[in-house]
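JOB MANIFEST
job_type = single_chain_structure
chain_count = 1
residues = 182
[input]
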Amino acid sequence: MKSLVSSEIVEPYAQALMSVAKTHNLADRFGDEVRALVSALEGSADLSQFLANPFIKVADKKAVLQRIVGDESHPFLRNFLMLLVDKGRILFIEGIGKQYLALLRELNQTVLAEVVSAVELNDAQKESVKQRVQNITGARSVDLQTTIDPDLIGGVIIKVGSQIIDASLRGQLRRIGVRLAA
């Protein structure tokens, strides 16, 4: 139920932000600023809880958001964030930001590749993954979202949309085990 309510709120706000961004040719700039904000929210559970707390004053939430986005952010984006606070929708900001980034990827013909690896990938490995995903999908460019899972032992798992490429050592061992059991 929560995801239904969330999507009914998240999508229209993300669409509205994208509409403003496209009208003023600011889609990529907003994308950079929204990406930084989403990253800050993902990195701080305290910040997310602060913004979601209904007992904290609107002025305090606005002051914290102003400090986070700073004066360098575009006034349209700052006003959008203040509107979310005023409407009591700021608790959805992370979802709205992620939906906006998905719309931006669609606009720019970019795909999101979620990469899980046993260790941190270096720049050459990241570029190799991007090239492989570009070849598979035919996308103009690729955004990588990397996470580390030491249980993989080695290799990577790449998820693009509903397609999963399991090139991990754990996956290979699992496939061998299935063959041996059959």
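[summary]
Residues 2-106 form a domain with the Peroxidase; domain 1 fold (CATH 1.10.520.20).
The mean pLDDT is 90.
exit_status = 0
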